[in-house]
Each structure stands twice: as structure tokens, then as C-alpha cells.
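Incident review: delayed structure delivery

Summary: a single-chain prediction request sat in the queue longer than the usual turnaround. Root cause was a stuck worker, restarted by the on-call engineer. No data loss occurred. The affected request and its eventual output are reproduced below so the record is complete for anyone auditing the incident later.

Affected input:
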Amino acid sequence: MRAASNARVLLQADSGARPARTRITCARTSFTFDPELTVGEEDRFADWSSTLARNIFPIGELDEGRFFLGIDETSEICLIETWVATFGPVREALDKLVLGIAPRRIA
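Output delivered after worker restart:
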């Protein structure tokens, strides 16, 4: 299953923060990798997957549930709300989440 493979990549990623190539662009907020926190949001993920023509699987939440986090089939981590933004590939995304670098809005 592709989702399990992407989740494995995320969990095996080197979580050590590395210097960011860009400056800090937002306040750091808490994030949690736990797909169970997205229960009830299946339609939101399905709708954005259809709109963006790529599968986005729930992986957790950002800012204590204010936003949801998803990972697509290319291991790109996205912020999901009534809009979508990307944090980039897993390693880059972890840096951005830890350091406080805003994602790039894509829809």
C-alpha cells in the first residue's frame, strides 16, 4: 500500500534540524503525527485529493488541531484546511515545521 510506504519514509526520516535556506517566516506551532487525529475529515482529504489530482493521506495535525497534515504519494507534506499548502518533501517539511517556516500555498 502506497500510504504505508510514505508513512514509513516519514517515520524513518532524519529528524535532526538542519540550517534552513530561508529565514523564519511564521511562529512555530505544535504538530503531531497521528492519523487518528484526523478522524471525521475523510471527505476533506478526498476532496483535496480529487482537486489536486494526487492522493493525500492524513498523518496528523498542526497548531493543536487548527490545521491538518497530509502526505501525498511523492512524500510531500501538505497543510490541509479550506485551502492547501505544501511544506515540501519530508526532510524539508520537517525542517520547516520545527523551525517555523510557512508552507507555500498551492490551492
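Verification: The chain has a mean pLDDT of 85.
Action items: add queue-age alerting; document worker restart procedure.
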